């Protein structure tokens, strides 16, 4: 006959020795499973005489209860130990600083931000955005814009020329955004109202000039667009861009081959204390060139100057960015120095709009 005391000692010590839930489950199956040692004992009760059963029954049932109880208690202990282990493994020091998310660490370059700002302002006035390639034909960069062959104005632009192709044609890195005027007038019908932001190139480098810089061109063509409209648009732009209520502008006669008459525009400012402010002061600062589109330019685009007319302007984006955000030197704009970008850059989610404010 099985020695119940021995079996009990064996089983309890196995329960005690089980190191994890899987080991404990194996002990449970070996004792209380279908073919377990205790289950087999229980099965023998049926074949016993009533006297035997009276004596052995409580002992075997008692053994079962004891083993079951020990397994349950061990299970709890193991679960607690597992929880403890997990808690200490996943411990978090809540006093540590929160790491910055990529979208709050990244910065938008001031040029990109200023292009967004001026696009928001002109979009509000009904302008759409047009673009053209940086590598441009000599024809679109100069000839179509009424620069005669050999005209000194071509030299004024310090042009970067590409090596001539097999036909002897020399492409250029566009010296201004004005060729996109031609691209627009030959691909769209008036009324036209576009701004053209983009990269431009000239052989020039000092504190306020870099070989690659940015311009934004404006072009309005319809039946009666005139200088008064242009002055209003430019004034509204300056007020919105520099975020001032009043701005005085001065239109000085000038020359561009593609406009007649042509003007350069200065805005009033104060330079007191080395800091430039708009809407006050007695100084002037040049910010753009403009004029009525030359009839030859209209003709070069297949438009009839007796039917349509319009105006255009070109403005240095880098220049107005430096002015607005007080950046004294242009060269670091293109040096990709993260320290500079951290200082002068914008948060990616500060998207300029006229409703929420250009700069928050
Ligand atoms: N393209 C000129 C420049 O780069 C700027 C300019 C002047 C553009 C007058 C225009 C304009 O559209 O009408 O110096």
TrEMBL record:
<dbReference type="InterPro" id="IPR010978">
    <property type="entry name" value="tRNA-bd_arm"/>
</dbReference>
<dbReference type="InterPro" id="IPR045864">
    <property type="entry name" value="aa-tRNA-synth_II/BPL/LPL"/>
</dbReference>
<dbReference type="Pfam" id="PF01409">
    <property type="entry name" value="tRNA-synt_2d"/>
</dbReference>
<dbReference type="GO" id="GO:0004826">
    <property type="term" value="F:phenylalanine-tRNA ligase activity"/>
</dbReference>
<keyword id="KW-0648">Protein biosynthesis</keyword>
<keyword id="KW-0547">Nucleotide-binding</keyword>
<comment type="subunit">
    <text>Tetramer of two alpha and two beta subunits.</text>
</comment>
<protein>
    <recommendedName>
        <fullName>Phenylalanine--tRNA ligase alpha subunit</fullName>
        <ecNumber>6.1.1.20</ecNumber>
    </recommendedName>
</protein>
<dbReference type="Pfam" id="PF02912">
    <property type="entry name" value="Phe_tRNA-synt_N"/>
</dbReference>
<keyword id="KW-0479">Metal-binding</keyword>
<keyword id="KW-0460">Magnesium</keyword>
<dbReference type="InterPro" id="IPR022911">
    <property type="entry name" value="Phe_tRNA_ligase_alpha1_bac"/>
</dbReference>
<keyword id="KW-0963">Cytoplasm</keyword>
<keyword id="KW-0067">ATP-binding</keyword>
<keyword id="KW-0436">Ligase</keyword>
<comment type="similarity">
    <text>Belongs to the class-II aminoacyl-tRNA synthetase family. Phe-tRNA synthetase alpha subunit type 1 subfamily.</text>
</comment>
<dbReference type="InterPro" id="IPR006195">
    <property type="entry name" value="aa-tRNA-synth_II"/>
</dbReference>
<dbReference type="InterPro" id="IPR004188">
    <property type="entry name" value="Phe-tRNA_ligase_II_N"/>
</dbReference>
<feature type="domain" description="Aminoacyl-transfer RNA synthetases class-II family profile">
    <location>
        <begin position="112"/>
        <end position="332"/>
    </location>
</feature>
<dbReference type="InterPro" id="IPR004529">
    <property type="entry name" value="Phe-tRNA-synth_IIc_asu"/>
</dbReference>
<keyword id="KW-0030">Aminoacyl-tRNA synthetase</keyword>
<feature type="binding site">
    <location>
        <position position="260"/>
    </location>
    <ligand>
        <name>Mg(2+)</name>
    </ligand>
</feature>
<dbReference type="InterPro" id="IPR002319">
    <property type="entry name" value="Phenylalanyl-tRNA_Synthase"/>
</dbReference>
């Amino acid at each position: 006959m099985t020695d119940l005391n021995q079996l009990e000692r064996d089983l309890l010590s196995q329960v005690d020795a089980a190191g994890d839930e899987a080991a404990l489950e194996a002990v449970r199956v070996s004792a209380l499973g279908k073919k377990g040692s205790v289950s087999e004992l229980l099965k023998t009760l049926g074949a016993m005489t009533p006297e035997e059963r009276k004596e052995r029954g409580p002992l075997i049932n008692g053994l079962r209860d004891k083993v079951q109880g020990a397994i349950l208690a061990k299970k709890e202990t193991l679960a607690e130990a597992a929880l403890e282990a997990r808690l200490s493994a996943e411990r978090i020091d809540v006093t540590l600083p929160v790491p910055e998310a990529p979208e709050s660490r990244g910065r938008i370059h001031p040029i990109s931000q200023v292009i967004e700002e001026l696009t928001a302002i002109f979009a509000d006035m009904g302008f759409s955005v047009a673009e053209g390639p940086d590598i441009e034909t000599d024809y679109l960069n100069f000839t179509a814009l009424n620069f005669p062959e050999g005209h000194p104005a071509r030299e004024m632009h310090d042009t970067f020329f590409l090596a001539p192709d097999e036909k002897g044609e020399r492409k250029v890195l566009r010296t201004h955004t004005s060729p996109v005027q031609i691209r627009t007038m030959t691909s769209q019908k008036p009324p036209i109202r576009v701004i053209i932001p983009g990269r431009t190139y000239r052989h020039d480098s000092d504190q306020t000039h870099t070989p690659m810089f940015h311009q934004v061109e404006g072009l309005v063509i319809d039946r009666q667009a005139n200088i008064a409209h242009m002055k209003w648009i430019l004034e509204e732009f300056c007020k919105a861009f520099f975020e001032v209520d009043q701005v005085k502008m001065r239109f000085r006669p000038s020359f561009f081959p593609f406009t007649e008459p042509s003007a350069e525009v200065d805005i009033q400012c104060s330079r007191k204390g080395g800091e430039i402010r708009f809407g006050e002061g007695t100084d002037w600062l040049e910010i753009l060139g403009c004029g009525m589109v030359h009839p030859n330019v209209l003709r070069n685009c297949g438009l009839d100057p007796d039917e349509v007319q319009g105006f255009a302007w070109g403005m240095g984006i880098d220049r107005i960015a430096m002015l607005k955000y007080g950046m004294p030197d242009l060269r670091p704009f293109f040096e990709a120095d993260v320290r500079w970008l951290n200082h002068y850059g914008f948060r990616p989610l500060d998207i300029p709009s006229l409703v929420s404010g250009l700069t928050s």
